[in-house]
Amino acid sequence: MAQRSEKRAMHERTMPTRRYVEENAVREMEIESPIPREFEEQRRKNRKKRAIQERTEANRQRAKQYTLIQLGALALTVVGVLGFCVRYLQAQDEMDAHIREIAKLEQEYSDKLSENEGLKTRIDSEIDYNEIYRIATEELGMTYPQKHQEIQYDHAESEYVRQNDEIPRE
Known about the structure:
3 helices, two-stranded antiparallel ribbon, rod-shaped, mainly alpha, 8% strand
């Protein structure tokens, strides 16, 4: 019996009750159904729980989006750094090749200078200036010019005199 009266009391609480509400001059009838406190508290807890879950899900979605953006930026950065590293290594290799080429050319230049010095020394050692003087004076009858035979002029175009150029009179 006790169970039956509890069920009836529960049923009566959930059944709508009628009451009159007066507003201005109009009388309206509003049906109000009482909601048990346990259900109200449960509903409030569920709302809070749902709100928390929605905020958590929104935060997760935002975190995923930031992560994708950050991952994309990181990937671009890594690709950029790798590109710079590859270009740096290529430039370093080119520079090393140029340095080797310069060293090779410097060695060739040094060898040519040494060869030229050796040839010059050999030529100078084979020239007998006394024999040249003897042939010029004895066989060809050459003598040193007299003071009045020397003519000096300024020839600024070149550092040597060509035989086909005209010598100025004065």
